Amino acid sequence: VQFVESGGGLVQPGGSMRLSCAASGFTFSSSGMGWFRQAPGKEREFVAVINWRGGNILYADSVKGRFTISRDNAKNTVYLELNSLKPEDTAVYYCQRSPTTNYWGQGTQVTVSS
Description:
Layout: E1 2-6, E2 9-11, E3 17-24, E4 32-38, E5 45-50, E6 57-59, E7 67-72, E8 77-82, E9 91-98, E10 108-112
Parallel strand pairs: 2-10
Antiparallel strand pairs: 1-3, 3-8, 4-5, 4-9, 5-6, 7-8, 9-10
């Protein structure tokens, strides 16, 4: 099982960013997929999850209306569109299967700062 996250970087408050995660080692097209994040000094927290077909989606209250999760089963890739970014969104972002596995990728750093 492998997750490779990409697309992070430095962005100003109010800006946007799109994260990608390429997954392998399991049947992606029949698996739910989620995004998590971990800010400095804090526990890893749930951000969003999407079911295998993309028909059921759930967001954490802190990102609802600003972030959008999507997937491309042909590419074994899940995406997270981040809009109206706030400094408190600064974190390392990880993708994961739902239900979770014991494997985590290296994550991608998102820094929101002016």
